[in-house]
Model the fold of this input.
Amino acid sequence: MGTLHVMDHPLVQHKLSLMRNKDTGIKEFRELLDEISMLLTYEATRDLPLEDVEVETPICTCKTKMLSGRKLGIIPILRAGLGMVDGILRLVPAAKVGHIGLYRDPETLQPVEYYCKLPVDAPERHLIVLDPMLATGGSSSAAIDFLKRRGCSNIKLVCLLGAPEGIKYVMDHHPDVDIYIAAVDSHLNEHGYIVPGLGDAGDRLFGTK
Ligand code: PRP
Ligand code: URA
Done:
């Protein structure tokens, strides 16, 4: 079974509370998502492998460590996952970026796929799927299915907020995938929105409502 990592760091919780506030405007909402994404990725990359290297400092030669092995790929789920990309690229500037376009049908709540473009070497990379909202879990799970069908196997999921039912759904369908999240909320309402949540992440990020 995958592990659920809830990042209850005070800075993350403070920034998330600001994002939940309905009066927080688009500029601040974007900045906060960017900052929290960076902090979540810091945790999600904790187990990246290191190798010994030799470096010459101004004082002497020393043995020190650098990242080794597979490179990173980040896969935002459109649209709201886009708001998490820049923060992560500041931490890992050489990461490649793939995009998966999914929207949730408002009636059935089922994910509908409309776009996919992945780095050609995605199966050789550590992949981090990004979506701020894990509600029913349908979208994240479909994106992970999609990657697996294309030969990818080394996958983590980084989200901002989740509902217990969505987290269970992803963990049941993808027991090999660890989830990194800032908070687990109470439940979903009758429209499939996370309660208390922060509303529609895509609309708040792009000003579409
Ligand atoms: C939102 C959100 C997730 C999905 C979560 O996207 O960004 O992708 O819903 O819901 P789920 O866990 O029940 O699948 P939405 O479908 O609203 O599309 P958008 O990002 O384009 O607004
Ligand atoms: N998508 C969102 O943007 N917000 C929710 O609460 C659920 C799905």
Summary: The CA atoms of residues 50 and 67 lie 4 Å apart. The pocket of uracil (ligand 2) is lined by residues 133, 135, 192-194, 197, 200-202 (CB under 6 Å). The longest strand covers residues 155-162.
